[in-house]
Amino acid sequence: MAGTMQSPTLHEATRMETSLTEALARSLGLEKALAAHRDDVLAAASRAETIRANLPQLRDPAAEPFPPMCPGPRR
Amino acid sequence: MKPLHSLGVAEIGAAYRDGTITPPRLLRHLLDRIERLNPRVHAFIQVDAEAAMLAAEAAGAEFARGRARGPLHGIPVGIKDIIDVAGLPTTCHSRILLGNVAAADAAVVARLRAAGAIIIGKLSTHEFALGGPAFDLPFPPARNPWNTDHHPGGSSSGSGAGLAAGLFPLALGTDTGGSVRNPASQCGIVGLKPTYGLVSRRGVFPLAFTLDHVGPMARRAQDAALLLQAIAGHDALDPGSVPAPPPRATSAGIAGLRVGFVRHFHETDMPADSEVASALEQAAALLSAEGAIVRDVTLPSLNDFAAVNRAILHAEAYAIHAPWLRDRPGDYAQLTRSSLLTGAFLTADDYIQAQRARGWMIERVERALGEVDVLLTASSMDPPARIEDAAEVARTYPRQARTPFNVTGHPALAMMAGLSNGGLPLSVQFVAGYFQEARLLDVAAAFERVAELPSCRMLEED
């Protein structure tokens, strides 16, 4: 199958995600954290993914995010 | 007479007025007790004995002249160490802020001083009010007075531990994902997260701006009510503050109270430990027996609430901590660092979707509270784990039903509901409509009267 794109294996995909995470961390100025606490950086990225996956999705395009907090229903 | 350290606020006030005890005598008793017991529970980061004694002597002189200022006059209060007290360090229990001395009192501390309260010192917390107990910090974590092998909950851990141990009668905590109510649940005391905006956050180190609350903690509901009355009030310098009438105690009982039991939180969303589930059923039965009308109520799932709370909390907290995470990541505890870094990997879309979902959740809780007077829910799904069992602490800490009401801003109160077979506190949570703290505190006081709750053995030690 020369010349065709192959799907990455799970191992490769994980490696790719890790390298993306590291690149993102560097772009955010977190080089020191990455150098000394790499496991914490990767765990944080994984936690963010889990949060994202669990966020409820609203169908109403007009649902407002403002005000971010006040005691009472948003008008 | 009961031991001085176990007296409630009203009892202390009556004793001051009739001259049975004086503020300096009570304070000396508590300082002696702190010296003996604090090494076991680590409730304090710093005791401010000298300034407290000066305040106690001033209060004593006022009482001697017949000038009683109000219910908190001469009452010692412990302050969580993310809340500024002028002249004292605000370390947030962190190496990052060692040497950070507050220039001014937080608004809540200023209100306490105006009410005549005595600031007794700064109390342990989880680092920056986040995470859990950690052993790689400049101060040891607080321990649970019911059994010092166990954690006391947090992040207002010193507040909960010190109250249960009888080191002070009142304390302030803060609550972003349940941090007043967790130690209240685990230490068998009362903790109230007020309506968002009722109590000023000015001078309190922020964790997440739109989730942060300051709340009263006490051994009994009546004392929490008195503390809330002192600290509640509009503050034009806090952008989240809301003008609202101060909460007033009422004498309403339980008869006729409409209670919505949110069973799915602990039955299906996050199945609770059997002893916790049993305590919740007993609480519902007790309320029914006293004349309450208890019915099931359905809210969005705990999983939905938790995701929204975490997205908002981590995004807002990262915005605060990013400079230190870049420059000094090694100065955080491992648990805090890992947690705070989460916000780096959330997107603007995640944050805005969470804020949009928040509006939907507020509507759902408001709708439920349109049909009942209070909600009854689980608080912690498990009794407190052993503090040195990091895996069990990590498993049980997120198993709770407190975050929903940080997301929606409704007032929520956690309190003891019984004891586990292992002798550790079990808890319930009551939730009411916005600014209905008085109703919550009435329900809690009535529940205390009928539930015959035990007190901590350490409180009974001389």
What would you say this structure looks like, in words?
The complex is a heterodimer of chains A (75) and B (462). With 75 residues, chain A is mainly alpha-helical. Chain A has helices spanning 10-27, 31-36, 38-54. The radius of gyration of chain A is 19 Å and the shape is elongated. Residues 1-8 of chain A have low confidence and may be disordered. In chain B, strands 1-3-2-4-6-5-10-11-9-7-8 form an eleven-stranded mixed β-sheet, with helices on both faces. The model of chain B has no long low-confidence stretch (mean pLDDT 97). Chain A binds chain B through residues 21, 24-25, 28-30, 32-33, 36-37, 39-41, 43-45, 47-49, 51-52, 54-58, 63-66, 68-74, and chain B through 195-198, 209-211, 240, 242, 300, 303-304, 306-308, 310-311, 314, 322, 325-327, 329-330, 334, 337-347, 350, 352-360, 362-363, 366, 409-410, 434-435.
> How many helices of chain B does DSSP assign?
16
Rg of chain A (CA only): 19 Å
In CATH, the topology of chain B is named: Amidase signature (AS) enzymes
Percent helix of chain A, as a range, is 40-55%
Secondary-structure-based class of chain A equals mainly alpha
Categorize the overall geometry of chain A: elongated
- How much of the sequence lies in strands of chain A comes to under 5%
How much β-strand is present in the residues of chain B? 5-15%
Helical percentage of chain B: 40-55%
CATH architecture annotation name of chain B = Alpha-Beta Complex
Q: Provide mean pLDDT of chain A, rounded.
A: 83
Total number of distinct structural domains of chain B: 1
- Give the ordered list of helices and strands of chain A: HHH
Tell me the total number of β-strands of chain B.
Answer: 11
Main beta sheet of chain B, described?
11 strands, mixed
Task: Report low-confidence residues of chain B grouped into runs of 5 or more.
Answer: none
Mean residue pLDDT of chain B: 97
Sheet with most strands: strand arrangement of chain B: 1-3-2-4-6-5-10-11-9-7-8
